[in-house]
Structure formats: structure tokens, C-alpha cells
């Protein structure tokens, strides 16, 4: 999952006393949003305190999670957070990080297997193009719900015959509603074909 330039190792980010983050690879100041984007891209980085040279990557990643959670769409439900907090100081505390990491790895593998299965299920059939369109719409819908995603980023190309002006001027809510409706229609077609 971690991507780096071959031979260079993780990107070093320095955090200064004024709370500014400096990317030593690009020689520029960056924000937590930049680090979140690097994480989503799979870029490996290490954040160090510029004065003490202490590795503070864990603290910065936790801060990014807190900011993402405050933006609205939360991923960490309150019961989970309560359970996690209750594990601090418990005799099982040492086992929790490994368990959570293994669980996330398993989740990612399952997610990739599901995507591969859907793509493979229709390979070399008349439904291959339909499956590709479904996946593109699914990915566009997923991208629409990601915090910080830019409007239009990751959206599939307009369908043939659809007016270009409608695709470019539609609001994000209209696009999501259209994707949901199209997904519903496609699910109905697949169910009819299966029976």
C-alpha cells in the first residue's frame, strides 16, 4: 500500500513550532489536507518535530482523523470509540493495535476481491461494458462522499447521447441522485437476467 520513489524511502515532513508543516521532498509548506491526500494516494511519509527530531507521525495522523470526523460524515461510531477508550490501560491494550491493523488489512483485501469479482463476473460477455459503467458510477458515487473530494473528480464520462451541458452544469446532488437511479435500473436489469 505504501508508495515511495524507489530508493528514497518515506517523505520527511517537518513540523515547526508555529505548527507549520514542511515537505522536504517538494521544499514547500503543506497542510493536514495535503497529508490526508498523500495518505489516500498511498504515499509513505514520516512527520518529525523540527526542534526535537521526535517522530510525531502517529499524533499527526490522529489529528487528521479528528479533522475528518469533524467535517460531518463520520466513520468512527460512538460505541466503537467508547470501546477503544475503555481498552486503554486494560491488559489487552497491547493486542489492540495489531488486531485493528489486521482487521483493516482484511477489509481492504475483501474490498479489492469484491471489485475484482464484479469486474470478472461479466468479463467476455455482452454485459462487460455494462459492468464497467456500473463500476465507474460506483466509484464516482464513492468519490462524491469522500470528504475533500473536488466536484467532478472521478466522475465517469457522460453517457453517449447525453447532452454535454447537462453533465457539466448538474449539481453534485443531482449527479448523485442520477447515479442512484441508474444503479437501481441496472440492478433491476441484472435481477431480471438472473431469473
Q: What does this protein look like?
A:
The chain is an alpha+beta fold. The protein has seven helices and four strands; from the N terminus they run E-E-E-H-E-H-H-H-H-H-H. It has helices at residues 32-40, 57-70, 78-87, 96-121, 128-145, 164-169, 172-194; strands at residues 11-15, 21-23, 28-30, 45-49. The chain has a four-stranded mixed β-sheet with strand order 3-2-1-4. A hairpin with a 4-residue loop joins strand 2 and strand 3. Helix 1 (32-40) packs across helix 2 (57-70) and helix 5 packs antiparallel against helix 7 (172-194).
Keywords:
195 residues, alpha+beta, four-stranded mixed β-sheet
Query: How far do the termini sit from each other?
Result: 40 Å
Determine the fraction of residues in helical runs and give it as a percent range.
40-55%
What fraction of the residues are assigned to beta strands by DSSP? 5-15%
Shape: extended
* Individual helix count: 7
Query: What strand line-up does the widest sheet have?
Result: 3-2-1-4
Strand runs, count: 4
Low-confidence stretches: 151-162, 164-170
SSE string, helices as H and strands as E: EEEHEHHHHHH
Radius of gyration: 21 Å
Rounded mean pLDDT is: 80
Structural class: alpha+beta
Amino acid at each position: 500500500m505504501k508508495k515511495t520513489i524507489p530508493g528514497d524511502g518515506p517523505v520527511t515532513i517537518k513540523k515547526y513550532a508555529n505548527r507549520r508543516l514542511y515537505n522536504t521532498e517538494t521544499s514547500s509548506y503543506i497542510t493536514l489536507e495535503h497529508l490526508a491526500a498523500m495518505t489516500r494516494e498511498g504515499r509513505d511519509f514520516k512527520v518529525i518535530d523540527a526542534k526535537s527530531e521526535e517522530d510525531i507521525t502517529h499524533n499527526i495522523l490522529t489529528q487528521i482523523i479528528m479533522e475528518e470526523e469533524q467535517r460531518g460524515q463520520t466513520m468512527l461510531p460512538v460505541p466503537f470509540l467508547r470501546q477503544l477508550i475503555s481498552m486503554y490501560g486494560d491488559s489487552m491494550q497491547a493486542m489492540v493495535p495489531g488486531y485493528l491493523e489486521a482487521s483493516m488489512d482484511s477489509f481492504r483485501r475483501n474490498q479489492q476481491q469484491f471489485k475484482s469479482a464484479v469486474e470478472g463476473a461479466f468479463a467476455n460477455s455482452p454485459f462487460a461494458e455494462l459492468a464497467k459503467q456500473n463500476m465507474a458510477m460506483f466509484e464516482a458515487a464513492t468519490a462524491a462522499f469522500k470528504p475533500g473530494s473536488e466536484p467532478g473528480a472521478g466522475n465517469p464520462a457522460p453517457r453517449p447521447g447525453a447532452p454535454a451541458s447537462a453533465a457539466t452544469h448538474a449539481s453534485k446532488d443531482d449527479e448523485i441522485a442520477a447515479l442512484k437511479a441508474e444503479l437501481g435500473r441496472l440492478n433491476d436489469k441484472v435481477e431480471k437476467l438472473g431469473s
